[in-house]
Amino acid sequence: MAESQQDTFDVLYRQHWAPLTRLAWLLTGSREVGEDVVHDAFVKLIPLWPTLDVPEQYLRRMVVNGCRDHHRHRGVAARHRPPAAEPVWNPEVDETWAAVAALPERQRHVIVLRYYADQRIDEIAETLGCPTGTVKSLVHRGLAHIKERLEP
Amino acid sequence: MNNDLNELEGRVATALRSVASTVPDEPPIFFSGERGVRRGGRHQTPQKAQRQKAIYRAALVGAGAIAVSAAILGGLAVRAPSNTPHTSSFPAGHGAAPMQPSPPPVTIHYQVAGYTTEQATAAAAQCLSAAGTAGEQGAVLRATFSDAGGSTLVVTTPSGWNTCDASADGTVLVADPFKSYADAQGWGQSASPATDPSADWLTAPVELDSDGGGYLSKSTMSDGWLDVAVGRVAPNITKVTIQMPGGSTVTASVENGFFVARQLLPSAPSFSQAGTVPILGYDSSSNLVYDSLTAPSALPAHFTPTWQPPCFVTSNGQPVSSNAVSGQKCLKATAWPE
Fold it and tell me: Which of A22, A46, A76 sits opposite B20 (nearest CB)?
């Protein structure tokens, strides 16, 4: 990578590391895993860097895909996960985040993309490669599960 | 009904933003294309946190003749008795392809973090066993180093073996690959053909491991810059000192024919590896046996464009390799003790 390209790459890294890590954390339910996914995405971007017009979009797609890939290996890992999500700020946030984190992976993905990334239903469908009807259904079921868990 | 839904959606959105807001805006101190060192899980006892403060590393030292490719520079996943799962993959693409006419052996260096030496050793053993069952024979755990600076496992592998993540129990323990110093220091710098022409033969009493014939390094998320030098020694060598990037001289740990030296710096030193690494080897009587700067042909000329894979002969002149080019002067070598 030429020096000027690396400088630009560094700027991109500084600008997008935090937003992508936040998204990856919410998608995977683990900050550590989220950081890994984002790191891998930047590493994979390096050889493609000079050829991309909008690397931000590519990065985001790689991060979402990386989070989905992560769940393929989740079975064994889940049995040894730390006992709870990281404690946060107030009981309501903690409780809600715990409910989101406990969702099945596809439901959590659409909930995060919808209510954190502010993506429209059709954008989520494109991101996840599924029909819009499926996304609507997943959002509906995800909210229902969260509500069920939050109710006394 | 709609009000309830809107309230729930708002609560979810608020919670997600609150959780996400704990990620700092500032990225890790350095991004090298290498994975950083990680601590153990967040839910720890003080004792466990202290124990896991050390950095654990595993080094895979190539011993066969397989070309390095992107595919084999992935993550090593082994199993530990208990710990936080840690995913890993490292795509290749750093550095130019080696110039050798024959396939080089593979050298892969990995890092594990947040595990006790016992956990990492047990996990590596399980991993190697699983690899053998899967038909990937020949990978052997050679040595386990442990000191105040951390632990290093040395594994030799005859091929591109690099993964075994199909154990029935335990947590995924992932070891991340190291890269040669030149590669890690600057993306795209092509200074390190990953080759180990002396994988089965020592051409000097002390030899740095192949991956560029020099230092290995990583950025670390929280600790700065980690440098490692891994190599092999002849049986009579009991002490090795090596000058590390930045200029400090470190005494290596020596065990089972291997040595490992390491240093942790707050940031990457201004350093570009070139030429021979200053390294000294002593015997049990503290006699200087080997000085890399004065020893003739101490290391193959990895960095010259005319480099050819060296050939080897035994001490009585018997050829032990078939890759000699006509007229090429072969190196005198002794068998590496198994």
Answer: A22
Q: Is A32 on the interface with B (CB under 8 A)?
A: yes
* Whole-number Å distance between alpha carbons of B281 and B99: 30
- A92 and B23 within 8 Å at the Cβ level: the answer is no
Q: What is the ipTM for the molecules in this complex?
A: 0.84
Domain coverage including residue B229: 25-294+304-335
Yes or no, beta carbons of A43 and B15 under 8 Å apart: no
User: Does the distance separating the beta carbons of A13 and B31 come in below 8 Å?
Assistant: yes
Both A74 and A126 in one domain: the answer is no
Residue B319 carries which DSSP code?
B
Hey, are the CB atoms on A86 and B31 less than 8 Å from each other? no
> Does the pTM of the predicted model rise above 0.90?
no
Q: List the CATH number of the domain containing A113.
A: 1.10.10.10
Q: Could you tell me if B166 lies within 8 Å of chain A, comparing CB atoms?
A: no
Alpha helices in chain A (DSSP H): 3-28, 31-48, 55-72, 74-78, 91-101, 105-115, 121-128, 132-150
Question: For residue A110, what pLDDT band results from cuts at 50, 70 and 90?
Answer: very high
Q: Which domain holds residue A135?
A: 85-152
